[in-house]
Structures are given as C-alpha cells and as structure tokens.
C-alpha cells in the first residue's frame, strides 16, 4: 500500500488534488481512494486530504498518519502543521516553493530526516498557465516525475476530464512544465534546488 497526505490551504484545491491523484492512480492500474478531511473550510485555513494506492482492494478509510509521500501545496505550513510528522524513514516530500531542500528541512524542523525532499515552484508555474494559484496539477505532475506511482499522462488526462476545455488544457500544460522541472531537478540540472548532486538525501 502507498499512502499519501496532502497539505494546503482552503482555496488551493487540496481536496480536488486528492481526488485527481486517486483517479490518476486508478489509470495507472492501482486500486485507489481519496479521503477528504474537513474542519475549518474557510479560504486560507489549513486543509489536509489523503490518498491511498494498493494492488488489492482497499478496506481502510482512516486518515493517513504514517504517509509514504507528503505533498505540501503551501510552504507557510511547514512549521505550523509539521508535515514531516509520521513520514516514512525513506519517504518522499514534495513542496511547492522556490526555496531549496535544506531550507525546507530547516523551516519544518526536520533537518535530520532521511526522507527525500523535492521542491518545485508549482504556484509560479500554475499562474503562468491558469492565472490562478491552483497548484494541484503541477504538484501531482511533480509526484509523477519523482516516482513510478502515477504518470504525467494520467495526471493530464484526469484534469482534462474534470475541466474540459481551456481550463483543463491549462492544467495539463502546467503539469507538463512541473514534470519537466522535477525531472531536470532529479538530474541535477535545475536551478531551483531540491534533489541535487550534493543533496539528494541529506542526513
């Protein structure tokens, strides 16, 4: 089983991101489920949602307390919500930020974690295509670039299906840009920082 937790703020499409991730996981051949968590739903309030993948039927529905992957759509949540909490020792965290991985670790109070940290300027990418700070497609594409759980094609397909027309195409374009950014980052050629030759897995 692969468990994913998504952190963000109200208005950023966190629940939609979990739903789209589950759909992309299904297209990749997994059993998948998305679980929203509603508390304060006002714009700007912290929001969390969950997703699970498995190759067998999923029967559990509880919140994800021990994720393998964490997506953080708003970097201002790094300190207050402690997104590294419960993350697997060899887990993956993807953060929407222009900062580098060591800065993310320091801000989250997780300098000693062995989890892999990838940074991607998802909001900047999304604004250039959508004109709105809705980074879900870019974040899921970053996840696709960093793992074998889902594919870029699946991410683009689910957003085109959910938002037919110009909005879907804009999300697909943002996804392609974020995917390319993270693939370059993994190869050590991006300027944004994250996984680099010197800092792929800092202790």
Automatic annotation (TrEMBL):
Domain Pyruvate/ketoisovalerate oxidoreductase catalytic: 10-179
InterPro entries in UniProt: Oxidoreductase_gamma_subunit, PorC_KorC, Pyrv/ketoisovalerate_OxRed_cat, Pyrv_flavodox_OxRed_cen
SUPFAM superfamilies named among the record's database cross-references: Pyruvate-ferredoxin oxidoreductase, PFOR, domain III
GO molecular function: oxidoreductase activity, acting on the aldehyde or oxo group of donors, iron-sulfur protein as acceptor
Record keywords, A-Z: Oxidoreductase
PANTHER family, alphabetized: PYRUVATE SYNTHASE SUBUNIT PORC (PTHR43366:SF1)
Identification of the protein by name: 2-oxoacid:acceptor oxidoreductase family protein
């Amino acid at each position: 089983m692969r468990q994913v937790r998504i952190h963000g703020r109200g208005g950023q499409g966190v629940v939609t991101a979990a739903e789209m991730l589950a759909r992309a996981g299904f297209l990749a051949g997994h059993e998948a489920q998305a679980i929203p968590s509603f508390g304060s739903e006002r714009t700007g309030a912290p929001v969390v949602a969950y997703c699970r993948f498995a190759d067998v039927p999923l029967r559990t529905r509880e919140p994800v307390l021990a994720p393998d992957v964490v997506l953080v759509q708003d970097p201002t949540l790094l300190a207050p919500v402690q997104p590294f909490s419960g993350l697997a020792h060899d887990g993956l965290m993807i953060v929407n930020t222009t900062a580098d991985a060591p800065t993310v670790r320091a801000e989250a109070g997780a300098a000693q974690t062995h989890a892999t940290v990838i940074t991607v300027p998802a909001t900047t990418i999304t604004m250039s295509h959508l004109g709105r700070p809705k980074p879900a497609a870019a974040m899921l594409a970053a996840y696709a670039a960093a793992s074998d759980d889902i594919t870029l094609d699946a991410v683009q397909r689910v957003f085109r299906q959910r938002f037919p027309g110009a909005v879907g195409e804009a999300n697909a374009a943002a996804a392609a840009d974020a995917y390319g950014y993270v693939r370059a980052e993994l190869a050590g050629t991006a300027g944004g920082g994250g996984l680099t030759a010197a800092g792929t897995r800092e202790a």
